[in-house]
Amino acid sequence: MLVVSIGGSPSTRSRSGVLLEQSRQWLQDRGVEVVTFQVREFPAEDLLHARFDSPQVQHFQQLVAQADGLIVATPVYKASFSGALKTLLDLLPERALEHKVVLPIATGGSIAHMLAVDYALKPVLSTLKAQETLQGIFADDSQVAYADASQPARLTEPLQARLLDSLQTFHAALARRPRPLAPGVLEERLISARWSI
């Protein structure tokens, strides 16, 4: 099983990044391969000039094509998800999320931004033909606390419980996906099948 996680924050110190990292660890503990991309790691020229021929963009596209599911995490700015994330998603082919399960995660200054997931991010994921977009998680800034630079961020207990519940739902949805047959298996089954007329 392969999951691509996408961090939409331009900042290295990011609450949405904390949730993304905890999700990665949880999935890897259960044997899921997780590859993480951060928008800030892409050359700005590739994103701003939509360089589909960029090796880094092509690598991203290839892994998304191979993935069973995606986790997309973003801060909320001006009642929407990050512009850098939108630019990266725009570099994906039209049906890039077909047959994939997607878990959206967003963080914002207050619960007033909660609907940004439903009204801004989910429509974009739907346009990319995501097979199943889960309800997702929204956390306001008070639910992700930084102690100091040497300590990892802490989630409040209610947020930790919601994240765990969402990850379990995501993992179960990944497990339900039909597995493609290995090359030659279908042909072998057809040849060895008993046919009657």
TrEMBL record:
<keyword id="KW-0288">FMN</keyword>
<feature type="domain" description="NADPH-dependent FMN reductase-like">
    <location>
        <begin position="1"/>
        <end position="141"/>
    </location>
</feature>
<dbReference type="InterPro" id="IPR005025">
    <property type="entry name" value="FMN_Rdtase-like_dom"/>
</dbReference>
<keyword id="KW-0285">Flavoprotein</keyword>
<dbReference type="GO" id="GO:0052873">
    <property type="term" value="F:FMN reductase (NADPH) activity"/>
</dbReference>
<dbReference type="Pfam" id="PF03358">
    <property type="entry name" value="FMN_red"/>
</dbReference>
<dbReference type="InterPro" id="IPR020048">
    <property type="entry name" value="NADPH-dep_FMN_reduc_SsuE"/>
</dbReference>
<dbReference type="InterPro" id="IPR029039">
    <property type="entry name" value="Flavoprotein-like_sf"/>
</dbReference>
<comment type="similarity">
    <text>Belongs to the SsuE family.</text>
</comment>
<dbReference type="InterPro" id="IPR051814">
    <property type="entry name" value="NAD(P)H-dep_FMN_reductase"/>
</dbReference>
<keyword id="KW-0560">Oxidoreductase</keyword>
<protein>
    <submittedName>
        <fullName>NADPH-dependent FMN reductase</fullName>
        <ecNumber>1.5.1.38</ecNumber>
    </submittedName>
</protein>
